[in-house]
Design a protein that fits this description.
An eight-stranded mixed beta sheet has the order 1-2-4-3-5-6-7-8, sandwiched between helices. It is 36% helix and 23% strand. It is an alpha/beta fold. Helix 3 crosses helix 4. The protein has a single domain, classed as 3-Layer(aba) Sandwich (Rossmann fold), CATH 3.40.50.1820.
Amino acid sequence: MGSMIEYACTDGSKAAGYLASAERKGAPGVVVIQEWWGLQEQIKGICDELAAAGYNALAPDLYGGTVVPYHDPDAANREMSSLDFLGATDRAVRGAVQYLKRDGAKAGLTGFCMGGAVTVIGAVRIPELDAAVCFYGIPPEQAADPAAIRVPFQGHFANQDDWCTPQAVDGFEAKLKQAGISADIFRYDAEHGFMNEQREVHAAEAAAQAWERMLGFWKQHLG
């Protein structure tokens, strides 16, 4: 089990985050970005699982302590809409990457839903990043051009997704290919949010397959 910590953002301010530490010395790190619900216990659980797999995992609290209950998507949408995605990526998310790399280890970035979009932005904008894994989130192209992704990239998307739609994924993948960017894009017969075991959209088989693919990707690119 991890705990809440305070770490430095790139602008000198402080941010809170949930840190779960691996037992192996010199472990690589993974920054985990929340869904639009905030830093839910489920996201903390993802960090705990990554720590058990051998990675130091840090989930920044991008809503500053606000956690939205799953039954209130309107509130979640308000919180997400008020977030400065580029600023949060440049300050809090990049600061988390720097924190995990402070002893020279490699660091990756992953996120779900809103956090998936932040992951794409980070794959473009965070110079210290070593690899990225996105789960069903794509930002507007003006926020992050897929052709500008600069790290090894893996994406996981749902075929029954009315937010990050299959058509949006098709366009995203086409832009990666046009730019000559090698990326692993996986699609699942599932709904948006299928990795979240606390919600009715959870798809256990797809989630297990995606998790194993992610761990294999981290092993390849982070160690």
